[in-house]
Amino acid sequence: MEIPPGKDCLARPKTALGAAMNQSKRTALNVAFLGLGAMGAPMAGHLARAGHRVTVYNRSADRAADWLARNQGLNVAMAATPAAAARDQDVVLTCVGNDDDLAEVVLGEHGALAAMAPGALFVDHTTVSPAIAQRIAGAADRLGVLALDAPVSGGQAGAENGRLAIMCGGSAAAMAAAQPVLEAYAARIVHVGPPGAGQACKAVNQVCIAGVLAGLSEGVRLAQAAALDLDRVFEAISGGAAQSWQMENRWSTMTRDQFDFGFAVDWMRKDLAIALAEAQAHGVELPVTALVDGFYAEVQAMGGGRQDTSALIRHLPEVEA
């Protein structure tokens, strides 16, 4: 669908978010989704298939046009700027790259927040610092807009299958308004605390993943060195205390040196930088996380920056058969 001449967004009637939410969990809402990357594109698709009227924005207009083409037959449109996408919407959601990207899309010259109406809801799914989440929440509050920082876990597969875990920071009112919307692509939604708490929780999540992958990498290499049947090892240990999501989903690909999928090492290092900065701000030491971050730097230097985080095993020498 092309943008009509002289307009940068398909106009739609405005709906009062609170009234819509009170009517039914299934009420169709006017929704904007900003950022159509590996996570954002399937999430926006779930919203459209849930019956919401979805306007998308992406910095690369070609990607937005491709998304529209893949969702033909649904009530979808695209906008030329974040502000145009956000205007007259009940809910605006973002899933972009980092703090600077989010600030530009939300608070910049053509940012979404200033275009939003009082009473509307803003939800950010980007993994960013608690500081930018709190900054946006403060700006939203001054405009009468509800705001929620809601980073996700579950990877691209979780986004595509609608099975993400979402950790949320914001007011009780923002959480109540967001819940029916987030259910379109979530398996678990938890209100962790006030603004910024969702992002702080995501930092904890990434610290835990880093440690698990470090141990898993060493376990695989030990099994290889001992010339064990790797499938039998998995069968034996994945049902006990060593079991983890990473083991269940990455053991097989790690043993076969398959890494061209999933959550990129580059993004993991961005997330670990946030976690390490938070730890420093709170006077907490994270020695294992700092060590694993260094291992990921080695993987980047080997050309693995776009490979899945399970490529961490590449920093360990391969075992000769």
Calculate the mean pLDDT score and round it: 93
Pattern of helices and strands: HEHEHEHEHEHEEHEHEHHHHH
Low-pLDDT runs:
1-16, 18-24
The name of the CATH topology of the largest domain is Rossmann fold
Q: Work out the helicity level.
A: 40-55%
**Under the CATH scheme, which architecture of the largest domain would be assigned?**
3-Layer(aba) Sandwich
Shape: globular
- Class from secondary-structure proportions: alpha/beta
Termini gap = 55 Å
Strand percentage lies at: 5-15%
- Number of spatially distinct domains: 2
Structure summary:
It is built from 13 helices and 9 strands. With 321 residues, the protein is an alpha/beta fold. The chain has 2 domains: 17-194, Rossmann fold (3-Layer(aba) Sandwich); 201-315, Orthogonal Bundle (N-(1-d-carboxylethyl)-l-norvaline Dehydrogenase, domain 2).
